[in-house]
Amino acid sequence: MQTIKDLLIEEMRDTYSSETQILEGLGAMAEAATSPNLKQAFQTHRQETANQVERLKQAFEHLGADPDGNTCEATQGLIAEAEEVMEEGLPSELLDVALVMAAQKVEHYEIASYGSLKTIAQDCGESEVAVLLGQTLEEEKATDEKLTRLAETEINKTAVAASPSA
């Protein structure tokens, strides 16, 4: 890497790897979720993620670069944590709370990544790439907000109601 554009491409490859890993993870999380609303949220975001992968491919085409070549170790770790939660045998109410937490960890990582990538693309004069990255950034923020609302209005309340008094 010699230029900021090289860094942009390298970090976009990391994000591409992240998104492809998340596609797989969201399917497992949707299956594990017991709340119908949480299942639906994961399924909806899985479709959004597929669209985000396509959007990243468009950005790479615009830059004349290949999306392959990196493995996002941070996402590997976040998905491994989610898999551990799914294998712990938690009561369904607690599992849903833990799944929301795991998903929001991923969303926050993605928000940070897309925010930085969008800024770098703008600074490099890659306005078309910045627009594509910005679209995904807004989707990631919306997903995070949806998960927060779901936790506050349903998931956490159900878990509290099911928990024995201390």
Automatic annotation (TrEMBL):
SUPFAM superfamilies: Ferritin-like. Pfam families: DUF892. Signal peptide: none annotated. This is Uncharacterized protein. The lineage of its organism: Bacteria, Pseudomonadati, Pseudomonadota, Alphaproteobacteria, Hyphomicrobiales.
